[in-house]
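Hello,

Our lab assistant flagged a job as stuck in the queue for most of the afternoon. It eventually completed. Since we weren't sure the result was trustworthy after the delay, we are filing this so someone can double-check. Below is the sequence as submitted and the structure that was eventually returned. Let us know if re-running is recommended.
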Amino acid sequence: MVDIIHALILGVVQGLTEFLPISSSAHLNIFPWIFGWEKISESFDVALHLGTLLAITLYFWKDWIKLITSGYKQVVKKERTKEGKMFWYIVFATIPAGVLSLILDKISEKLIGENLNVEMLIIAITLIVMGIILYIVDKKSKSTIPYEKITLRQAMLIGMSQSLAAAFPGVSRSGITMTVARKLGIDRESAAKFSFLLATPITAAAVLFDIKHFTFGIPFLVGVLASFIVGILIIKFLLDYLKKGSFKVFAIYRVIVGLIVIALYFTRI
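-- returned structure --
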């Protein structure tokens, strides 16, 4: 059972790391491991994602209303719009991503098992490797494609890349989707926005699937509220930052954290 203080800290961590390309799952494992806390349950992990799901839904609620209504009109009334096209791109990209995520998550569970030290080493390696890849891709890729010009092929590739985050803890769902988007020539702000919109249905599915296991109480509410408030602030920060900034700072951060975890790993084995 997570106490209130731990729930608050983990909620803030979730809100800070879910939308930045630095892996929330890595940080939610690293904090308890470093400070000797009890490892959080999968249900509480998903509960924290409820907070960031509410944050992203509230932040993009106008976009989602346009997407859903336009998607409906495109099928029923044959009205073709950019929003309708994008809605169905998100749907088509989410379905295979969801299936692949379930499969790869099961494989990952069998390979890693309950060995926490092995899991932390994998997290450290993926933080570093993905940090280096993010830096190289972002630096070398052009920014020629805005959000409105994303194609179905690009949407599918970005969407399916999410499954790698389920297979390898520390990859980061937002990190891999933004990296693939940048490789495809999508500008940074558009890469982030599309990544956020893609996160909504797959996170909602995870929350609905695990809601029966939630332990409702004060720690639950504190964690969800903290991740919700911080999540909204981080979404706004990142979208504003990427209008002129790059992913370099996040790549460097990933490498530094990965190296710290490796150093701690060798002092504990």
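-- support follow-up --
The delay was a queue issue, not a problem with the job. The result is valid. Residues 82-112 form the longest helix (31 residues). The chain has a mean pLDDT of 92.
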